[in-house]
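User: Predict the complex.
Assistant: Input components as received:
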Amino acid sequence: MSNIIKPDDNTLSKPLYAPIKRRSFFIYAGATAGVTALALAGCSDDSDDNSSFIDVGANDVGVLNYAYALEQLEAAFYAQVIAGGYYLNTASAAEKQVFQDLALHEKIHVDFFRQAISAANATPLKNLTPDFSAINFGERTSVLNAAKAFEDLGVAAYNGAGQYIQDASYLTIAGKIVSVEARHAALIRDLITFNSFVGDDVVDFSTTGASARQEKSKSPSQVLETANMYLADGSKLSANSLR
Amino acid sequence: MDLFKIISDIEKVDPEVYDRFDTRRRVFKHISGMGKAVTAATLPGLLGTMFNKAYGQSSNLSTEIVQTLNLALQLEYLEYHYYDTGLKTSGLIPSADIPAITIIRDDELGHINALRAVLGSQAFSPNDPTRAAFDYTAGGKLPDPFANSANFYGTGQAFVDTGVRAYKGGAPSLMSNKAILTAALNIHSVEARHSSHLRLLRRGGVSATADVTNLNAKPKSWISGTDNGGPVPAVTAPVYGAGSDANHPAESNVTQANINVQTSSTAPTGLTITAAAASEAFDEPLDAAAVKAIARNFRSAVGATAGLFN
């Protein structure tokens, strides 16, 4: 590997060489010890770890609690939406119908996960305290943009966590929910900008290759980085054991 | 081309990418062994080799995975030719909707290419089924979908909802291969986005409300109950109905993991959890036999001869 990226290798084109140079860390770590590179990369992800973070746990229960946390965030958000100025004063009849449904669906998901986790003889996460101070519930644009963020995040989260599920019945449950979240996401995006139900921010727009036209799923750490922005101190999450 | 940027991007969707390469160290040895013979011109080919070695597992895919992906691939062709024919039918699709239908058509093409890349020589056919393999009127039982946009979106909704249920039903059979499972999940949600948009178009756009007394024509963006059987119940009811066994209930199902999600949920302030809402919150999978039975309605004599959806 190091042979092809030696700085003095003039058979390489400049555009190829230059960007690699910026990532010299990977050149050294990746070429000789991929495992070390992984471990080091993991360290930087963990560097914002804090003992006050609530870890969702391991194995299937960890995935269920991870989903439960995200659903709590969404349900709390829509509960505030339907009590807020935008919904009450300016939303169209069509938009009201949509937000009522979203509030219902997400609350149903929350109540389902809490019971399903208990039924698995495990302990559900506590009731999380959201921090929606960045959202203006009186303003349509603010509400829709937040809804888009939550819904797209939910889809990417479920898709990214599917591989950690060991029990097929839980994978099916996750599949039953993620497509509903994707329906939500597409509609919210269309409400913001018509025809943006699929966009290159959430889907790989190449038409060839292994990930062509597929959702850009996210790892739990990527997801929680965003989710934690909407959770109060003491309710912020980690998922250090989902793998 | 920035190899490490590419790998980094892959890591975003596949956190185990480094593991993949690492467990196949010969890939790196192979490349380093090429030494200075590697040039910018040959690198893309080498990268292809490297990624094929990491992801391309065509030679040792389980029968279950091959069967699941081949059904998905056939459904993607059904959809691709449908939208492609629509786009090529002058005056059919309102100009405001052409960008959306183009995206959907191209998404199906991407899915075809991705599935073929995984399946390799185990794809159901080395050749692409042509438009002639499909009969989008279901033997005359459906109105001509290319006659007007209402017909077009109606039948399209039935296809995409079948596809969403098929991917969902197939997912457990892919669990032994995490990369393939994740790819399928990442296709599944894109199909659900398509369904949401087609349903939006069918009810009349962003300012139109769904009509819960006429979900056939003015559906929500999600499946409510069984949507009264869908766009044309005589043909599309099975798209929303029960599958072949108790694990594949109809879309109106409200019991999830033995929990009645209607009666055991507490409604948000001011709202009521109806059976409709409880059913909407969960989509349902469909088993392969039920999916094939639906899809066989839409193969022509050519498609039947080719063995599509057998």
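Chain B touches chain A through 99 residues (CB under 8 Å).
Let me know if you want any component modeled separately.
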